[in-house]
Specification:
Layout (H helix, E strand, L loop, with lengths): L8 H12 L4 E6 L2 E5 H11 L4 E5 L2 E10 L3 H10 L4 E6 L12 E7 L18 E5 L5 E7 L4 E7 L1 H11 L3 E5 L3 H8 L5 E4 L6 H12 L13 H16 L12 E2 L7 E2 L1 H6 L13 H5 L5 H12 L5 H16 L1 H11 L5 H9 L5 H11 L2 H9 L4 H9 L4 H10 L20 H11 L1 H16 L5 E5 L3 E7 L11 E5 L3 E5 L1 H33 L2 H27 L5 E3 L3 E7 L4 H4 L9 E6 L5 E5 L6 H17 L7 E5 L3 E5 L12 H13 L6 E6 L7 H17 L6 E6 L7 H4 L3 E11 L2 E10 L7 H7 L4 H17 L26 H11 L8 H19 L1
Parallel strand pairs: 1-5, 7-10, 9-12, 10-11, 13-23, 18-22, 21-25, 21-26, 23-24, 24-25
Antiparallel strand pairs: 1-2, 2-4, 3-4, 5-6, 7-8, 8-9, 14-15, 15-17, 16-17, 19-20, 19-22, 26-27
Helix pairs in contact: 6-7, 10-21, 11-21, 12-15, 13-14, 13-21, 14-17, 15-16, 18-20, 27-28, 27-30, 29-30
């Protein structure tokens, strides 16, 4: 019987480390390669498109193997992480030259989608959040950490609130309690990168102690999060997860803040999606972010995105932002000068996080120095502007002069990527370093001196000194002169045409050079680390600078767009009023063909005379755009941006709800109508007096009479609500709703005007008072490319039905519809003709929507085709 081989020492070490990180893909350093084994190798080879091989594995006959050179880590690691893997990097902890037997190894970093400092994994203009959810009975805790910037936040709320925050912050990874998997997937689905932890990690006492230990505090009152118990549970789990993933140098996480629902406008996840604030709904669409983002720094780009999804409710903060934008517009020279400096500032927020983690490389430290050099000029420009709003920002900036001087004095102007490569520190900083450099780098001159001296002494004119790895430095003498070689020279090698010798002097100097080079590397590395440690003392000051620079950058971006697009400063009021004169859609107007102007529209909503605007008009006339435009103008105002209008008075809004378009959950077995009703119910149950409600085509997912009834009752409910008069824009194709205005004083009818010319319809895109009586569905069908014969026949039927106003009770009048001599008259006794009659019997042309009309026409066409085949 064959005896099984024992496990090799290397694989024994690998298996022991892998057992500690079973859920991670382990990159195991072997010599100059990172290797993966077994299942990890199979997975890595597919993701990285590298060769999968096999090797002997002691007791097992073979094991899969896939690897790549260690210097390619920055190329391959991002691919593994972006594929959703947790990656454990296992390095050699000893120099193989100094060790007999197997080298000691250990995991030096565990990179996950939500925890990384690697620039190739991170997106420069986007935060990389790790989220944590602590599930409670009705209220859940949530925390967000961006390890790359040190930003740490927590909050608590119900299912809808957690869902909305997860959509707003788009975390790269979410951790939660393993026994809450069903609740997690019910709330957020299965599309996120997730990791599960034990239940005790989400305990309140554990979380509270973790946070206090990290921040070196006795309680959390100073952060304003003391009473957010569920959020503390979630945040504590994040700190635990950092330890588990070998992220121990985290001093840059210096505070934690609460995402305060009282400070920000409530935008549910449907509204964020419908209004296309950050991401477009169509692949070729343009979100509002793309129009507003003209930032010059990565910090500014990340902050602007956050401002977009968290508009303000505090008048004083909004006014402060608007005043800065106005000041920047008033001083174009100052703005231009600041922008030129901003464009030179690298991502100091992420660089200083690497400083705190003691993982900044020499080139990054040089980038930090060059970025900090622009802080003082910006500070001077702001302080000398003569405008108080700008001076305040100048006051916040710290030029970090001593740090700048220290880095400038110590660090070379050109440095290698790795701190072990040498040539980092300038001359004159360390006496021993300077002496060793003379030996190491002036060695060639000294060797030339020896060469010339020995030539003269021996008379060997062709004598030369050279070097190879086997003998080190040696003297080479051609055979013609070997009789002149001094007796004290030691012969080391005989060649065909020459002899090679060494001398005691050469060996002594060679040892001196080699020793100098080794010492050089050690001294430079130590001096560099001292410099990083010195820089770490400025982490908090640089973080304040990064925050201030980001805000200035965002406000400059607002000023740039305001000037370019001719925006106005909105008047922010503490009253229930939205008064927009000649408003424009901020995105659509930038996408119009050259020479085509956007048609502006005015909107007035208050709680006294015009609480609800019922807007009718055909599809494609611009009803939906008008609704979105109003919401975007309000939200831009409350972000602190100027707005696309000639005048805007905005009463502070606390919530914006939209029911625009079909956000079907068909994959979950929910119909369009069910989703529509669920979203509408959520709106009606969460109103306040300062809420803005935008509803587009409510009820179209069901039968005509059901739809009219539901839409009518919703408008009534919004008008007669006992506590709140939510400002509402209600776009509909149900012309019957025009009658509501006769009975309810705060409901006003409007329509988006169209013009009929030679039996064609021209969309004027202009809002005007009064309801529309026509849907122009057939005109839209024609524009959509419906066959001309179908359109003509539809017009003939429509004319007859409108003339006689046929109702279901008068269905017999269908018989008097003029016959189509080319088709219908041929099939009067045909069952296909009877089918068309039955279909038209049930049709109420006055209430049918354009989409329904198109479908019915298509159905008629199909029936007639069937009869003709």
């Amino acid at each position: 019987m064959a005896v099984a081989k024992k496990e090799t020492p290397l694989m024994k070490q690998y298996n022991a480390i892998k057992a500690k990180h079973p859920d991670a893909l382990l990159l195991f350093r072997v010599g100059d390669f990172y290797e993966t084994f077994g299942e990890d190798a199979v997975r890595a080879s597919k993701i990285l498109d590298i060769v999968l091989t096999k090797r002997a594995n002691g007791s097992a006959s073979h094991i899969e193997l896939a690897g790549f050179p260690h210097h390619s880590l920055d190329t391959y690691l991002p691919k593994l992480v972006k594929a959703g893997n947790r990656v454990a990097i296992c390095d050699q902890l000893e120099n193989p030259k100094d060790v007999k037997g197997i080298v000691k190894r250990g995991v030096t970093e565990l990179v996950t989608p939500g925890l990384t400092l690697n620039d190739n994994v991170l997106e420069q203009r986007k935060n990389n959040y790790l989220a944590s959810i602590a599930f409670g009975k009705d209220v859940h805790g949530v925390a967000f950490l961006d390890l790359s910037t040190g930003e740490f936040m927590l909050s608590a709320g119900n299912n809808d609130y957690i869902d909305k925050l997860i959509q707003s912050f788009s975390p790269s990874e979410i951790i939660y309690c393993k026994n809450q998997k069903a609740n997690f997937e019910k709330l957020l689905g299965t599309d996120h990168n997730t990791f599960c932890l034990e239940e005790w990690i989400f305990g309140l006492d554990f979380g509270y102690e973790k946070l206090n230990t990290h921040f070196k505090t006795k309680n959390l009152k100073g952060f304003g999060v003391e009473d957010t118990k569920e959020g503390i549970c979630a945040a504590g789990a994040i700190l635990f997860y950092l330890e588990e993933t070998e992220h121990k140098e985290i001093s840059h996480i210096s505070s934690i803040s609460r995402i305060d629902t009282d400070k920000f406008v409530w935008l549910d996840k449907f509204t964020i999606r419908n209004l296309e604030l950050v991401y477009p709904q169509q692949n070729d669409g343009v979100p509002l972010l793309q129009v507003l983002d003209h930032t010059h720094t990565a910090m500014g780009a990340r902050l602007l995105k956050k401002w977009l999804v968290l508009p303000l409710k505090e008048k004083s903060v909004i006014e402060a932002r608007l005043s800065v934008v106005e000041s920047l517009l008033a001083q174009p020279d100052v703005s231009e000068a600041i922008q030129s400096h901003l464009s030179q500032i690298s991502d100091i927020e992420r660089l200083v996080s690497k400083v705190a983690a003691l993982r900044i490389n020499p080139r990054e430290l040089l980038h930090l120095k060059r970025a900090l050099a622009h802080i003082q000029p910006i500070k001077t420009l702001l302080e000398n502007s003569g405008i108080e709003t700008l001076s305040k920002y100048g006051d916040k900036l710290n030029p970090c002069s001593q740090l700048l001087e220290k880095i400038d004095t110590n660090l070379q102007d050109e440095v290698p990527l790795n701190a072990t490569q040498g040539n980092l520190i300038k001359d004159g900083i360390d006496a021993e370093l300077d002496e060793l450099r003379k030996i190491a780098f002036s060695g060639k001159d000294y060797l030339l001196q020896i060469q010339e001296r020995e030539k003269e002494r021996t008379g060997i004119s062709s004598l030369k000194i050279a070097y190879n790895k086997v003998f080190g430095y040696y003297l080479e003498v051609s055979n013609a002169h070997k009789d002149k070689v001094p007796a004290e020279w030691i012969r080391k090698q005989t060649l065909v045409n020459a002899e090679r010798y060494i001398t005691e002097e050469l060996k002594t100097y060679e040892e001196k050079i080699i020793t100098a080079e080794e010492k050089l590397s050690t001294i430079e590395f130590d001096l560099y680390n001292e410099l990083v440690t010195f820089t770490a003392d400025y982490v908090s000051e640089i973080q304040v600078n990064a925050k201030s620079i980001a805000e200035i950058d965002c406000l400059l971006s607002f000023a740039h767009v305001a000037k370019k697009q001719n925006y106005c400063r909105p008047l922010i009021q503490e009253e229930d009023l939205i008064d927009i004169k000649e408003g424009r859609h901020p995105v659509i107007e930038t996408q119009l063909p050259t020479g085509e102007e956007y048609i502006p529209n005015s909107v007035l909503l208050d709680d006294v005379s015009q609480q609800i605007m019922v807007i009718t008009g055909p599809n494609m006339a611009g009803k939906s755009a008008l609704l979105r435009q109003t919401a975007l103008i309000v939200l831009m105002a409350q972000m602190g941006s100027f707005v696309p209008a000639s005048y805007a008075k905005i009463g502070l809004i606390d919530k914006v709800f939209t029911r625009v378009g079909a956000s079907d959950n068909l994959s979950k077995g929910e119909s369009t109508f069910m989703v529509e009703m669920t979203e509408t119910a959520s709106i009606l149950n969460n109103l306040s007096g300062s809420t803005l409600v935008l509803m587009d085509e409510i009820g179209r997912g069901t039968s005509t009479y059901d739809g009219v009834s539901i839409a009518w009752s919703i408008v009534e409910h919004l008008h007669n609500h006992p506590k709140h008069r939510a400002k509402t824009m209600f776009a509909t194709h149900y012309h019957e709703l025009n009658q509501i205005a006769e009975d309810f004083p705060r409901v006003k009818n409007f329509n988006v005007s169209v013009k009929e010319l030679d039996n064609r319809v021209i969309f004027m895109r202009k809002l005007q008072e009064g309801g529309s009586q026509h849907s122009f569905g057939i005109h839209v069908a024609k524009m959509a490319g419906m066959p001309n014969a179908v359109v003509l026949r539809a017009n003939e039927i429509l004319g007859h039905l409108e003339k006689d106003k046929i109702k279901e009770a008068e269905a017999s009048k269908i018989e008097s519809i003029p016959k189509n001599n080319f088709q219908l008259s041929m099939f009067e006794s045909d069952p296909h003709f009877e089918e068309v009659l039955t279909l038209l019997n049930k049709l109420d042309i006055n209430t049918i929507s354009p989409v329904e009309a198109l479908l019915k026409l298509n159905e008629i066409k199909s029936i007639l085709k069937g009869g003709n085949s």
